[in-house]
Amino acid sequence: MDRRKFTCRAVACIGWGYASGSPAWALSLADLTDADAGAGLRTALERGALTAVKLLGRTDGFLGNPKVRIPLPGYLQDAAGILRTFGLSRRLDRLETAMNRAAEAAVPEARALLVSAVQSMSVADAKQILRGGDTSVTEFFSHRTRDPLAEKFLPVVGRATAKVGLARQYNDVVDRAGRFGIVDAQTSRIEPYVTAKALDGLFFMIGEEEKKIRRDPVGTGSAILRKVFGAL
To answer: Which residues does 110 contact at the CB level (< 8 Å), separation at least 6?
Structure first.
C-alpha cells in the first residue's frame, strides 16, 4: 500500500474522531473485555472508598458537612423541641457532636474493610452495572457489601463511642427524657445507629467520587478508568 495514502487515511480517521467529539482511541462499552470492565469497576470503587475515608475520617468530616452530618435519632429529633424547653439543649447539642466525632474517629479503621470488600467482591456483569447511571457502581457495592460491612464496622464504632463518651451522654439524655415521659428510657443502644449513619456517609461520598470519574475519566490519571469510563 502507498505510504502517502495510508498516512492520509490515518490522518482522516484521527480528524474524524476529534470532529465527532470523541478521541480516536476511545472504545465503546461493547469493545471492552469483561475483565477490563470488572477491573475498572473495582478501581473506581477502591478510589472512591479511599477518598471517602480521607474526607470523612478527620475532624469535622461528618460534623462540618451537612450532606453527611449525623442527626439525632428520629425519636430524639421529634422530641427535641420539648426537651429543649426542659433545659436539655446543651446535652442534645453535645450528643449530636459526640455522634459525629465517633463516626469521624471510626471511619479510618473502615479503610481496610472497604478495600477488602472491593477486592473480594465477585462481579457477574460489570458492563451492565457500569451502564446503570451516575452512581450505579456504588449502589451495586452498597447492595452487595453493606450488611457484612456493618457487622464488622460495629465494634469499631463501639470503640470510638467509648473514647468520646457517647454512650454515657446518650444514656443521660434518654434517661432524662424518659423521666418526662417523652421517650422510652429503654430505647436501644446508640452504636448501631451511628454505624448505619457512618456507612450512609461513606457510600454517599463513594458515589460522589464515582460521579467525578464518570465526568472526567481522563483526569483521573488512571489508564483503566480512562479506558472503561471513557467508553460509556
So the answer is: 53, 57, 149, 153, 156, 198, 202
